[in-house]
Write a sequence for this structure.
């Protein structure tokens, strides 16, 4: 009887360990085909996350070892959160430069920011007219305040289609593709490393916007 009971318990334990193991390693297993395809095509994509907010832990780690940082944001809320603490707290000279692009909130009706605001108001009743512009101004004020103590921070404003969020370092790119019917945090995010076509594309998006922006006062 004891042998039968021991066999049943052992079987249950083995099954539980197998399920736990498959749960732990399934994410890594799913990543293998993507890594292989990325290597064969030169895309350089390491991860594809269904929602932007899921990238926060990876982003904080990459920012903590970056030599430079470039950000093109649709609103800029991420800039004031804990994930960017390694950027604003870096006082050891590690960061050579920080460039931030935010939408131009002073253009009013007809701007690309106002169009994005109209899109969001259709899916989020809390988006009253002017709310998105107000949030951009608050985040811009935060960057300006930090920049008073740091000479390596540049802030500029763009008026271009609000379609992406781009965060670049010298090693990695985080590219969010905004959906018309979703908040940015709920939109998919690609993580691509350098060298790679997707990293180069994200860099091109940022450079194009930077070259067609105006400096903050």
């Amino acid at each position: 009887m004891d042998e039968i009971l021991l066999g049943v318990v052992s079987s249950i334990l083995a099954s539980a360990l197998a399920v736990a193991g498959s749960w732990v390693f399934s994410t890594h297993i799913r990543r293998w085909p993507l890594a292989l395809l990325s290597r064969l095509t030169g895309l350089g994509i390491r991860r594809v996350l269904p929602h932007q907010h899921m990238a926060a832990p990876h982003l904080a780690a990459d920012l903590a070892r970056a030599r430079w940082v470039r950000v093109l944001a649709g609103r800029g809320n991420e800039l004031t959160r804990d994930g960017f603490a390694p950027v604003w707290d870096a006082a050891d000279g590690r960061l050579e430069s920080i460039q931030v692009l935010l939408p131009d909130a002073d253009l009013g009706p007809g701007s690309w920011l106002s169009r994005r605001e109209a899109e969001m108001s259709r899916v989020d009743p809390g988006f009253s007219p002017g709310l998105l512009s107000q949030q951009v101004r608050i985040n811009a004020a935060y960057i300006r305040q930090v920049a008073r103590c740091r000479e390596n921070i540049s802030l500029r404003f763009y008026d271009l289609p609000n379609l992406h969020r781009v965060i670049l370092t010298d090693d990695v790119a985080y590219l969010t593709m905004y959906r018309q019917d979703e908040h940015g945090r709920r939109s998919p995010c690609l993580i691509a490393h350098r060298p790679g076509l997707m990293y180069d594309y994200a860099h091109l998006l940022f450079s194009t916007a930077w070259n067609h922006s105006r400096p903050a006062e």
